[in-house]
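REVIEWER CHECKLIST
Item 1: Sequence provided? yes
Item 2: Single chain? yes
Item 3: Sequence as submitted:
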Amino acid sequence: MAGETIARILTEGAMEVHGRIAGSSNATLLVTCRLGDEELMAVYKPHKGERPLWDFPGGLYRREVAAFVLSESLGWGLVPETVERPEGPFGRGSVQRFVPEDGTSHYFTLRDDPQWHPTLVRLCAFDVAANNADRKSGHVLLAEGRLWAIDNGLCFNEDDKLRTVIWDFGGEALAPDDLDALERFVRGGPATALCELLTPSELAALGRRVSWLLRHGALPELVDDGGWPPYPWPLV
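Item 4: Structure as written out by the authors:
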C-alpha cells in the first residue's frame, strides 16, 4: 500500500477502538481505521490520555508525528507511518500504522545479530538527533523483515535528555550514507511539517544535535557522570 494511501486511511478512516494496549503508561489504543474498501490496524494515542510530565510539555502525540517526519526527512524509514489526527473517539491525537511484530524480538534479542548492526547504528543516530528520552528495548521491533522504532513521544526536548538502552554502539562511526542524509537535512533545513510540530527552540536544538553528529562522524559514548541517568526504566 502506497504511503499516501496509508496516510489517508489513518487520517480520514472511520476508527474502531479494540482496546488499550497493556503496559502503556499513557492511553495507547489498538484501533482499526477503515476508508472505503481499505482498512489498517493502527495505534491511536489521544492527547486526553497523556499523563502530565514535569519535563515535557503536553502534546506528546505531536512528538510521535515529528519523529516520523524526521525519519522520512532523512530517508531512513525507521518509524511506521504516523499522522496527527484532529479528531477521534477520544479527541485529537496521533495514529500510527500497527506493525505486526512477532511478540518476542526486541533490542536485547537483536543486538548480537550482525545483520542488524547498520540499522541499529542508524537508529542510534536518529535517537541522538531526536534527543530520545525513552528508547527501551521493547521500542525496537522486528516486523516485515526489518527493524522499526516505536513509542517516540519523549523526543525533541530542547534540553539534553538522551536515555537509551542502545549504548553498545557508542563511538561507532556513522556510515557515509547516513552522514550524507544528515548533511542534506542541515542544508535543506527542517521540513515544514516539523516546523508546525515543534517550537523554534526545539528546532534549533535539533539542528545543533545533527551538527554535532556531523562534526564527530560517530555516535556518542556512554558517560555516566552521576547526573541524569543515561538509561530508561524499565529497560524493556
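Item 5: Key structural point noted by reviewer: The CA atoms of residues 74 and 181 lie 5 Å apart.
Item 6: Recommendation: ____
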